[in-house]
Model the fold of this input.
Amino acid sequence: MPLAPKPADFPRIRGAVKFYQVASVITGTLLLALCAEMLLKYLGGLEIELAGPSGFLALVPAGTTTAVNLSTGILIVHGWFYVVYLFSDFRLWSLMRWPFTRFIVIALGGVIPFLSFFLEGRIAREVKAYLASREAEAAPVVAPTTPTVEATP
Done:
């Protein structure tokens, strides 16, 4: 029998789901920007330069950036935010008491393009439905009351 989340953890799980959803969208967006940057760099031989002599935002040949190299910036920001994404994944995974393979699948969302968007919707729906069903089971059953009518003489 798999372990189930504790009812006392339900408020923390709701917070973990929200944090996971935000981290998932940001990580997925940064991953797509990273993929576009890699395609520009390795297929087109271009890098993105910010505030250089070519303009505020310009594509320059790889290795010739003289200002802020936005290509490297995207790489660094995605890498650090992936760590935040892994933390959100771990927090949700541990509170929900899922098997370790589930943690690995969710963690892959930060390295496989578009997977984080797909998983974000699916995981959030699943967790919210689970919490709603568990709370419905735990709610006390109240018998309908009929008003008593007294006869007046």
